[in-house]
Amino acid sequence: MDGKLAVRRHNLTKRWLMKIIDEREKNLDDKPYRNIQELEDYGENTQSSLLYLTLEILGIKDLHADHAASHIGKAQGIVTCLRATPYHGSRRRVFLPMDVCVLHGVSQEDFLRKSQDKNVRDVVYDVASQAHLHLKHARSFHKSVPVKAFPAFLQTVALEDYLKKIQKVDFDIFHPSLQQKNALLPLSLYIQSWRKRY
């Protein structure tokens, strides 16, 4: 289905589509995020915008659902950045927020060398903690969000799974177990869906 047809058929807000496009164009220059706020903005303008569009397609116009979508999108943006760090590092790129790296005395070279030093893990801990906070905030709206919106938010199951896995390996972002799929994830998604939770 072409974009214009989808916008007309589902009466979608063009602004969300434009935010996604604009943000992706901004990131074509492959610069690291200057701070955690820039990374959150990326998540808001891409992932949250997709969630706002999904809510519109589901016919949901609800302030609490929008707030939850905002936080879930930010968490998704942060987790995506973390998950992609080994891949980007293999291509000599680091996108983790520079302010957090500077705070812990970590250079891009530390990530390129796949350092497992405590200060590198502290950077990962700080960034992952921000994603966890956004998930917690999103779930705080659980009782106020229409149940009809829950399927749009099931990605929280995969986000939480990754954050638990990275915690188990003491925030070693290069640990091989982080690149393995969780065979039980589909079951977890089913259970959360059945329990009407996100």
Automatic annotation (TrEMBL):
Keyword Ion transport in record: no
GO cellular component labels: mitochondrial inner membrane
InterPro entries: Isoprenoid_synthase_dom_sf (IPR008949), Squ/phyt_synthse (IPR002060)
Entries under Gene3D superfamilies matching the protein: Farnesyl Diphosphate Synthase
GO annotation terms (biological process): mitochondrial respiratory chain complex I assembly
Swiss-Prot/TrEMBL keywords: Membrane, Mitochondrion, Mitochondrion inner membrane, Transit peptide
Record bears the keyword Transcription regulation: no
Primary role: Involved in the assembly of mitochondrial NADH:ubiquinone oxidoreductase complex (complex I) at early stages. May play a role in the biogenesis of complex I subunit MT-ND1.
UniProt family annotation: Belongs to the NDUFAF6 family.
UniProt name for this protein: NADH dehydrogenase (ubiquinone) complex I, assembly factor 6
